[in-house]
């Protein structure tokens, strides 16, 4: 008669998988609630009928790459930066036309930074639907 071999009880690998799935569930529940929802009684302002205007201090870039500021033509980014005081150079607003090639926009932002602009902010249209 052979002695009965003791069989080791093997752990189920599904328990570890269930733990991981549960932790992922908790993570996504917490991550999804970080932003506070809007109050149900809050009604947002509608800007559909407002006329869009550029900020008065923005450098406007036309589709052909032409620069204007306050309806005046600007010859180069360096000339524009030279007209600004130190505080205005800290943040320069750039208002590009939608049809402006991306390559031109990147080149212009580099020129503004090289000329002394601290930050270059792109002013864009945002639609809430």
- The N- and C-terminal alpha carbons lie at a distance of 81 Å
- What structural class do the secondary elements suggest? alpha/beta
The strand order across the widest sheet is 3-2-1-4-5
Could you describe the largest sheet, including whether it forms a barrel? 5 strands, mixed
- Report the helical percentage: 25-40%
User: What integer value in Å does the Rg equal?
Assistant: 29 Å
**In what range is the share of β-strand residues?**
5-15%
What form results from the Cα inertia axes?
elongated
Task: Work out the helix count.
Answer: 4
Q: Give the uncertain stretches in residue-range form.
A: none
Beta strands, count: 5
Mean pLDDT: 79
H/E topology pattern: HEEEHHEHE
Task: Give the helix/strand layout.
Elements: H1 14-32, E1 59-61, E2 67-69, E3 72-74, H2 77-82, H3 86-90, E4 91-96, H4 102-115, E5 119-122
Parallel strand pairs: 1-4, 4-5
Antiparallel strand pairs: 1-2, 2-3
Protein name: Biopolymer transport protein ExbD
Main location: membrane
InterPro entries: ExbD
């Amino acid at each position: 008669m052979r002695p009965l071999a003791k069989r080791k009880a093997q752990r189920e690998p599904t328990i570890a998988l269930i733990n991981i799935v549960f932790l992922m569930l908790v993570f996504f529940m917490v991550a999804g609630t970080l932003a506070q929802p809007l109050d149900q009684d809050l009604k947002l302002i509608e800007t559909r009928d407002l006329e869009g205007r550029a900020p008065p201090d923005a450098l406007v870039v036309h589709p052909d790459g032409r620069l204007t500021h306050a309806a005046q033509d600007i010859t180069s980014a360096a000339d524009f930066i030279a007209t600004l005081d130190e505080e205005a150079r800290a943040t320069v607003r750039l208002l590009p036309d939608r049809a402006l090639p991306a390559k031109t926009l990147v080149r212009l932002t580099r020129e503004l930074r090289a000329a002394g602009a601290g930050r270059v902010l792109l002013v864009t249209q945002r639609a809430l639907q």
